[in-house]
Design a protein that fits this description.
Layout: E1 2-4, H1 7-17, E2 26-29, E3 33-37, H2 42-51, E4 57-62, H3 70-80, E5 83-91, H4 93-99, E6 104-107, E7 112-114, H5 119-128, H6 135-154, H7 160-168, E8 193-196, H8 198-203, E9 209-211, E10 213-215, H9 220-227, E11 231-234
Parallel strand pairs: 1-10, 3-4, 4-5, 5-6, 5-7, 6-9, 8-11
Antiparallel strand pairs: 2-3
Length: 241
């Protein structure tokens, strides 16, 4: 595993790959399988279900996705036994639902995994403030939690990793706002994303991810500035206790 120390290079690679669009990303067939570039929505997953062959490779660059599409992605990875390769940014949906449950995943040079908002957090919100959760959102929480839980169990990953991620984002449950147009409440966070070091991932039983590089410590501040993000950098499990 390489550790690239150039602040400018690390930040520019991540910044150039970032995308704020919530339209379905491009799906392209490759010699090894399929590549996805952009937001992972229901339309994206429908194309993946058509094109990703058993034993194929899913190459992905994505900064987000639709929660409703998450169970389908986890199920597709299991059915096809596909491997995953991250290219550039792999944030939120990408890290949680495409990389963690994969049989094998590879984080290529210049790629960064950032986690955010697991189903466990939404279950906690439902327990503490049930009046904010509609029946539809509640059903989605159950479906997503079940799918991800099964995916983690298949890989021997400790589900406590989800609590670690959620704790690190410093969610303020008591300040959660009522649902907006999409029916989902808005939880305020102290940090937008969470980065887990390879050692922390291994602590939780994650052994299916191969890192070709990892962002250097001295590049972290620049990475956040260039991408306009706040990140909790977790190098020790005690940091997210």
């Amino acid at each position: 595993m390489r550790r690239i120390t150039s602040v400018t290079l690390a930040a520019m690679i991540a910044a150039s790959c970032a995308s704020a669009q919530n339209t379905d990303g491009a799906v392209v067939e490759t010699p090894a399988g399929v590549s996805v570039n952009g937001f992972v929505g229901d339309g994206t997953v429908t194309l993946l279900e058509e094109k990703l062959r058993p034993g194929g490779e899913l190459k992905i660059h994505s900064t987000g996705g639709s929660t409703a599409a998450a169970p389908r992605v986890v199920s597709l990875l299991e059915r096809t036994d596909a491997t995953v390769e991250t290219v550039g940014s792999c944030f939120s949906f990408c890290a949680l639902y495409a990389v963690l449950p994969a049989r094998s995943a590879r984080v290529t040079e210049g790629s960064t995994l950032l986690f955010h908002s697991t189903p466990a957090l939404w279950e906690k919100l439902r327990r503490h403030r049930p009046q904010l959760i509609s029946e539809g959102v509640s059903a989605l929480i159950d479906e997503t939690s079940r799918a991800l839980g099964e995916g983690l169990r298949r890989r021997g990953i400790d589900p406590a990793i989800l609590e670690c991620i959620d704790n690190a984002t410093e969610p303020r449950i008591d300040e959660t706002r009522r649902p907006l147009t999409d029916g989902r409440p808005r939880i305020p966070f102290g940090k937008e994303f969470v980065w887990l070091s390879p050692a922390v991932l291994e602590h939780f039983g994650v052994r299916n991810i191969q890192f070709e590089w990892t962002l250097a410590v001295d590049a972290r501040d620049s990475f956040e500035r260039m991408n306009n993000l706040t990140v909790a950098w977790i190098d020790d499990p005690a940091q997210c206790a």
